[in-house]
């Protein structure tokens, strides 16, 4: 028997004979600290995808990053009951990418996993650079926070974050704690490579808010307006 177990058994016997003294309970687990969006563009970089003006609790997808010593701290959140992830890529296409995912399992926990995209398939990598992991599933959202080193030993599946990469954003359902295909056919990506040393607050409208954003739509609006103002002949 271990010393810890012997002490626990001894305390149990003592407290069973002292009904006036309740047995001590384990200290409460610290609640997940909400993601602060007021810091976006100032002390951390952020990407928001969804409705204009959305935050970490209302965006379809949210990501933040900031440097803390020799690490980069990431915060991710998405409107899903499965998983949310960020990929680091040399281009804007899926394949050959280093991916960090926060996965909601059947026990209600949110685990941080490391993947490597092989074509359109995400292969889990046992070497996981994440540390100081925490996550929560609330209000049909998966939210997490973790750190990973800026510099890592040379490895095909883990990139050095001091270099600039395109960021790939994805989220979707999970089955028994295993990720499945992402929610949308063409997940958003950063328009240019991202430097962790540059903090920006970048908003990307989701499909529902892109209706009139293309040059063709704007030209059509101008033409219809001109037609209505001029009247029919």
Automatic annotation (TrEMBL):
Signal peptide: 1-20
This protein's UniProt keywords: Membrane, Signal, Transmembrane, Transmembrane helix
KW Iron (keyword) present: no
Bilayer-spanning residue ranges: 212-230
Lineage: superkingdom: Eukaryota
Single biological process term from Gene Ontology: regulation of postsynaptic membrane neurotransmitter receptor levels
Record Pfam families: DOMON (PF03351)
Domain called DOMON: residue spans: 59-174
SMART domains assigned: DoH (SM00664)
PANTHER family reported in the protein's UniProt record: DOMON DOMAIN-CONTAINING PROTEIN FRRS1L
The protein's name: DOMON domain-containing protein
